[in-house]
Write a sequence for this structure.
């Protein structure tokens, strides 16, 4: 019933009375009301107005399993695409499935995360209807020492996807944050299970502030959203589709090359740290210098005050701007 009413509302493109829906489908007003409520719960924006009926607004942001798989119907890279209205964390779910023996590559997308996490175990705010919270479970045929490059490739692919859909010139704060107007718009958390011989699995998690209007007090000064930057709502489904397309192209090529040669120049073109003073928070000792770009392993080249260079690995340290977040 829900699908039939959704199809009718799409066809009409104007207000449709409850009585007309009752007569069309030979059901009661209560059945129509329940179907409408169910569609709203699935993310469809349906306006109900007295004496006029129901109007379906743009449904390109209706995030549910059916619409997600329809938007990604030509994607053959993943064995399955999984949607969760609410979950603790898409990264956690991906790792659970991997530990339970899942050998295929998966894409996991949630409308809300109750326990989203960033690097260093930091909490990641993931409310319903506001962002893109997704993870990939990957089993890449690459050597373990090259797995960390996947974070940088993911960051660039996501930036390219956002640019395609919105036209915004997204910057990258090495290694895993995307920024606009000097504020964080996306974070990437890559987790993996590997040994010296092979990679069991890799899970890149992606959190994008799409239509977020307010942030927790502790991150209000350093976070922004696409809606804030554009001044309008951004439909999530086309954005997910564009990002996934960029990710598939990048990951497929990376498994063939296992180096960053194809991406280094493009990554550095988006690198907001480039040429800037940075503070490296290393467990072995904090130091400052100038970020001079990345090497072919994805490490950040930092020129220290004494003129020596240090290659900084993403899994070991955090990098901050001397005068602020960037």
């Amino acid at each position: 019933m829900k699908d039939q009413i959704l199809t009718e509302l799409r066809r009409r493109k104007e207000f449709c009375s409850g009585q007309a829906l009752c007569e069309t489908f030979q059901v009661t007003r209560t059945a129509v009301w329940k179907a409408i409520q169910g569609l709203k719960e699935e993310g469809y924006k349906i306006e109900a107005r007295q004496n006029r009926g129901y109007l379906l607004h743009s449904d390109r942001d209706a995030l549910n399993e059916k619409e997600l798989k329809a938007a990604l119907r030509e994607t053959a890279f993943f064995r399955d695409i999984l949607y969760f209205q609410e979950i603790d964390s898409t990264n956690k779910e991906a790792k659970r499935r991997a530990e339970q023996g899942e050998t295929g590559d998966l894409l996991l997308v949630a409308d809300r995360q109750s326990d989203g996490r960033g690097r260093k175990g930091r909490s990641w705010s993931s409310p319903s209807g506001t962002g893109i919270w997704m993870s990939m479970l990957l089993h890449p045929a690459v050597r373990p020492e090259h797995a960390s490059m996947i974070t940088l490739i993911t960051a660039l692919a996501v930036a390219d996807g956002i640019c395609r859909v919105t036209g915004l010139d997204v910057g990258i704060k090495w290694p895993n944050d995307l920024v606009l107007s000097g504020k964080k718009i996306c974070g990437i958390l890559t987790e993996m299970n590997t040994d010296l011989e092979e990679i069991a699995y890799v899970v890149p998690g992606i959190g994008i502030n799409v239509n977020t209007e307010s942030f927790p007090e502790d991150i209000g000064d350093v976070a922004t959203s696409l809606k804030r930057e554009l001044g309008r709502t951004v439909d999530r489904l086309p954005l997910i589709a564009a990002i996934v397309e960029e990710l598939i192209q990048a990951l497929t090529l990376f498994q063939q090359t296992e180096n960053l040669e194809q991406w280094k120049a493009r990554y550095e073109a988006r690198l907001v740290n480039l040429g800037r003073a940075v503070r490296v928070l290393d467990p072995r000792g904090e130091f400052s210098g100038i970020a001079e770009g990345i090497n072919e392993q994805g490490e950040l080249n930092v020129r220290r005050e004494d003129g020596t260079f240090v290659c900084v690995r993403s899994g070991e340290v955090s990098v901050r701007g001397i005068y602020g977040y960037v």
User: Anything to note?
Assistant: The longest helix spans residues 236-257. The chain has a mean pLDDT of 88. The domain at 65-269 is CATH 3.30.930.10 (BirA Bifunctional Protein; domain 2). The chain has three domains: 2-56, 65-269, 273-321.
